[in-house]
Amino acid sequence: MATQVEYVKLAQTLPAKLLKFFARYPPVLKPAAGLGASADEGATSILTSINTSSTDPNATVVESTIQPSLAPSDNPNPFKPHKHPETGRWHDPVYSLRRQADLVKLARVNGVEELLPYTFKGSGEGRKRREEHGLRVKGTGVGQRVKGKAWERTMKSRLEKRKQAMLGMPTLVQQWKQRYSAFSGGQCYSWT
């Protein structure tokens, strides 16, 4: 596990878009199970840097204690719609799906994707959904067929009929020779 000083150095290297997001929606750090809890059981101690300039090695570091909120409506997930506690009306997510995808890509490049709140734009969620639901293209599941165009659906039977016709062609030619010769009065000009 990284120390708090390493977290500060990591924060100094993040792009401005991620810094702004984490300032507005700080990541919820989950304490590891089995470790002794402090007297303040829910409190999380985080080192934050006042001067986030990556060029200044003497950045001022301040230790602050954050009390996580027990009420989920205090700081809702900005990636999901939420219901207002008083009015009961639904509010849209703060970040659109496109902006969520941009943030997730940026966080993935910088190695902090796991600090983002839950979103189904995350890389793990996409893989999990693909495993559960497959490609979701009709006909790609077990025992399913793609509908296709009419000529594609009938192609197999048409080719089979054509093959059978070609196999039966010598008998058909023989029948036509007999009919034509009977029709022309015994004189067969084209069939010899």
What does this structure look like?
The structure is a single chain. The chain has 192 residues and is mainly alpha-helical. Helix content is 40%, strand content 8%. It contains six helices and four strands, in the order ααββββαααα. The chain has helices at residues 4-13, 16-24, 97-110, 123-133, 150-167, 169-183, and strands spanning 44-49, 61-66, 82-83, 90-91. The strands form two sheets. It has a two-stranded antiparallel sheet. A two-stranded antiparallel sheet has the order 3-4. β3 (82-83) and β4 (90-91) form a beta hairpin. It is rod-shaped, with a radius of gyration of 36 Å.
What is the general shape?
rod-shaped
The biggest sheet amounts to: 2 strands, antiparallel
Lateral arrangement of strands in the main beta sheet:
1-2
Structural class: mainly alpha
C-alpha Rg (nearest Å): 36 Å
Helix-strand pattern: HHEEEEHHHH
Count of strand segments: 4
Average residue pLDDT: 77
The tally of helices reads 6
Strand content: 5-15%
Fraction of helical residues: 40-55%
Which parts are unreliable, with pLDDT below 50 for 5 consecutive residues or more? 33-51, 66-73
**Straight-line distance between termini:** 94 Å
Summary of the model, kept short:
This protein is mainly alpha-helical.
Helix-strand layout with pairing:
Blueprint lengths: L3 H10 L2 H9 L19 E6 L11 E6 L15 E2 L6 E2 L5 H14 L12 H11 L16 H18 L1 H15 L9
Antiparallel strand pairs: 1-2, 3-4
Question: Keyphrases for this structure?
Answer:
single chain; 192 residues; mainly alpha; two-stranded antiparallel sheet; 6 helices; 40% helix; rod-shaped
